[in-house]
Amino acid sequence: MLDNLSGRLTKVMRYLKGEATVTEDNMKQALREIRLSLLEADVNYLVVKEFIANLREQALGRDVRESLTPYQQVIKIVQAELTRLLGDKQREIGRVQRKPGVIMLVGLQGTGKTTTAGKLARWLKHRGESVLLSSLDPKRLAAADQLATVAAEVDAPCYRSPGDMPLEKQVPNLLREARETGYERIIADTAGRLHVDDELMAELLALKKALNPEEILFVGDALTGQDAVESARRFNEAVGISGIILTKMDADARGGAALSMVSATGKPIVFIGTGEKPDDLQPFHPDRLAAQILGMGDVLSLIERAEEELDQREAERVARRMMRNEFTLDDFALQLEQMTRLGSLKDILGMLPQMGGKSVSLQGAEINERGIAHMIAIIRSMTPEERSRPKLINGRRRLRISRGSGRSVQEVNRLLKGYQEMRKTMGKPMFRRMMKRFDISNKMR
Hints:
The chain has helices at residues 3-17, 24-40, 45-59, 62-65, 70-85, 113-126, 143-153, 167-181, 198-211, 226-238, 256-265, 286-293, 299-309, 312-323, 329-337, 339-342, 345-350, 369-380, 384-388, 395-405, 409-427, 429-437, 440-443, and strands at 101-106, 131-136, 158-159, 185-190, 215-221, 243-247, 269-273, 281-283. The longest helix has 19 residues, at 409-427. Helix 5 (70-85) crosses helix 12. By secondary structure, it is α/β, with parallel strands linked by helices. The chain folds into 3 domains: 3-85, Four Helix Bundle (Hemerythrin (Met), subunit A) (Up-down Bundle); 101-292, P-loop containing nucleotide triphosphate hydrolases (Rossmann fold, 3-Layer(aba) Sandwich), CATH 3.40.50; 296-443, 434 Repressor (Amino-terminal Domain) (Orthogonal Bundle). It has an 8-stranded mixed sheet, with helices on both faces.
């Protein structure tokens, strides 16, 4: 996620780290590179201009010049500005104020509104709320059928009106059904177009009046960059949105939409879509994404995911061993075996500091289920002593492990090298600071 931008900004920060002091000259060079990085990431020009101006004013300020660690001060400033750009604070979907509470999804055709409706229903159900899905898209053929399929995948009910019934009659029937059956939430999947037009906006305004929704969430495709930003702005002006859901964030290497949305609309990003599975919808945390962009990882999200998907004791044990830098190859194998529950290996590594989602630590290993199976086979072909003390593994042992696992010696070497790099990262002061900053120890109590 945002790999290209993260790589560019991390490189700029490494440049500043090599400088003894932060001067006007080296900061000018760094700001130039940051500006180019943001523009190449398709961030809105006016947003970049303001961002650089704020950085320049703070990074050349007295506190930085007189600091014993100017590099760390600049990192802190850049992270704070990125967080501000992304919305500063997390915006949550509040509890239902009146039943049924309606969430209306709007956006252009093809952005993933229908699949997002299913993901959101799953998320709300996980929070303990009863949800009724409904398609209010009379224009698109089979829109109701598609939503019914998505609803079945997340085990949520789907209300269907007769195909020839106009929207002005569908809405009262939908609200009556939800009230009589006791549903707390309605998620309304509305019509979209290939572009913004007056007919669509008039239809959405009529629906808004009829539904009286608590939330109107714009669903935008992160891969379309500034097109998504402009669409969000126009939907907000015409209909009035309360928040944004960005889909396909897992495939977005640039980040222009995420970094421009809040400034362009004045509305927060509430959720991001990170894959095609029903549970690939995550609440958006501006501070965590800012940390990831700067190569600091997202350890808290990793721990939270582990707490949800793994046994609590196992999650605590792994976290403590990570903090004590006692993560062995046995621990690595156990985590690999549960990787399908936690997500892809690339995703997990992207949450660790300095790994940026590019699987740097595994030096070209295949990041998929087959690759994970191969790595487990290699580790299981080692003796218990070798798994706890990898430095014992010499050339002869590597050949034996290779033959025992059915994998090449090169693959064995890659795994061992990647594991050692992970251990190094966990032993760095920055990793411990990140754990402390996100208060991991209290999180595990």
